[in-house]
Amino acid sequence: MKEVATIAGVAYYPEQWDESLMSGDLDRIVGLGCDTVRIAEFGWHIMEREEGEYDFSFFDKVIEEAKKRELRVIFGTPTATAPAWLARRYPEVASKFRDGTVRTYGGRHTCCYSSEVYVDRSRRIVRKLAEHYRDEDAIIAWQIDNELGHEGSDVCWCEKCVVGFRKWLEKKYGDVAALNERYGTAFWSQQYNSFDEINAPNATITVHNPSLRLDWERFCSDKIRDFARMQVDVIKSVIPTALVIHDFSGGGLTKSLDYAAVARVIDKTAYNNYPVWGGQRKPLSPDETAFALDYIRGLKGDNFWITEAIMGAQGHDVTGFVPRPGQAEAWAMQAVARGCDGLVFFRYRGAVKGAEQYCYGLIDADDTEGRKWREAQRFFRNFKALDGKTDSPLKADICMIYDFDSLASFRLQRQSEIFDGEREMQRLHAAFFRLNVPVDVIPACDCFERYKAVIVPNMVICRPEVRERLKTFVAGGGAVVATFRTSVKDEDNNLVFGEKLPVGLTGLFGLTVDESESMWEQNGAKLKGYGAAAERCAFAGVFREKCTVTTAETLYGYDDDFFRGGAAVTKNRYGNGLAFYIACSPEDSVLDDVAQKVCAFCRVATFYTPAGVESVVRKGTAGGVRITINHNDEAVSFDGKVISPYGYCIEEI
């Protein structure tokens, strides 16, 4: 695989403009401070105007002009936007909404991944591209597709998917009797005589079987992963040394697509970072953007690229908040602080035609280099000055583990109307963010044994092997923090008979869960502190469990009639380690208390900064730096320095 140094670039779409602009555009891109352009991801029709008639001459010219200026290329496979001739000639490639309506050609990702025609034509164009550019050294990376699973494309309800689902189930279970047993289809007389009787969990009266619904989520994820793997395999078969990436969109923990499964088939992860989008009144908070970056970094446990960094306002039909002066630059530097070693701004020039007219770039329709241009230019200067000081992977002492099946289970059966699995993860992560403690967000199947502490949020499906690993980890001296509804179901999304909650972990946490209820408010339950927190009161909500402690110490208990006497937050000594259990969704002060206890026990260094200021240490082959970012709209005095609104400072260490 090719080794690629740090990249600084822009997303460039020369096919959307008169060809006479290309030379001047590339000169300006060099003047911006770029060494890379990302191209071609939406160019299928230009490459194949009629079926089987391939012509890469336009992008040959783009690459030739880029090479004259020593610009490198990230080349995107164009499969996210199939050409009109494909949709017309093969209408069966279209995917469908849940109500059976065909997704009309005209948007993006409108083709079904169960369509053999679409998959085959995608395979052909990718192979032709790889064969054509197999000796092109200017191409430093291949980006497969664009934002897989984005905007609802993770689920299709067409007949092809139903047939594919049945085959997927037959492969998994072998015998329909085994499926009936594991699903518990005796309920409501739903036993199947053959796999052909099984439907997708489309709209019905009441709800479908929870096991069926979870398997449907797994099937949807697998078919997109297989589509990604097909493209990787094709490229690698032609160019074995190719670096293959994919640009993930935000919201990966909320989709019917396991990003971690896709990440396992590519060489390097990339992320399109949009802290604000059309319709948002304000951007995501700094801790939310930090969480997203830590999640992307955790997909492969390595440095990553930002393939779309926001600079201007964004939106399709509804535009959003305009990043204030310095704010987009601060987001770009935050990505660097959290593991980004290559960044591409979206986009060089904003479109004047097409669906993304209101996705503003570094240059707007007036074709003038203004504030945004200068801001990106300044970022690239500062970014390049970090050469050799941020190239080592960021190594955290604490990780947060998640499980695709558990997240899917909660989406299917939320239990609480206000429960949001991703938000609960963000809130736990934010408690460590406020201490400036890095946290790797990783799949539960990955190795967490090297960390000092593991956070386990709402892992409703906790497989036996994960439970045993957690117990061994704590017994050996680590710390674990788990939250409500952990280890409640088996891998078939069923409750476990004859077991106290949390299943298989009552000894680890030194308690049992005796009662539970969903709540309609974030602050609907009153808590009172015990021990060192005896004078403290707090509130909790979303969901709560009433716990009876066996060996655990109660840190906070409930303070109302029915739940009074039940433990809400506990700490248990297990072997040489500690296990914390949070049986509700408490206010931030309680989460901060737990985070501080974890860091103190694990001897993890904390670093206090004013609110809205984050500070991260990065290291590399040529030294290291501390990057401190002020996300506030006013200047902040800190550590003898004044950091301007949305400014940052970089200190060598």
Q: How would you describe this protein?
A:
The strands form five sheets. Strands 11, 12, 13, 14, 15, 16, 17, 18, 19, 20 and 21 form an eleven-stranded mixed beta sheet that branches. The protein has an eight-stranded parallel beta barrel with strand order 1-2-5-6-7-8-9-10, surrounded by five helices. Strands 22-23-26 form a three-stranded antiparallel beta sheet, covered by helices on one side. It is globular, with a radius of gyration of 26 Å. It has 653 residues and is an alpha/beta fold. Helix content is 31%, strand content 22%. The two termini are 32 Å apart. It has 17 helices and 26 strands.
- Helical stretch count? 17
Helix content: 25-40%
Coarse morphology: globular
Q: Which structural class do the helices and strands define?
A: alpha/beta
What fraction of residues sit in β-strands?
15-25%
- Please mark out the parts with pLDDT under 50 across 5 or more consecutive residues, or reply none: none
What distance separates the N and C termini?
Answer: 32 Å
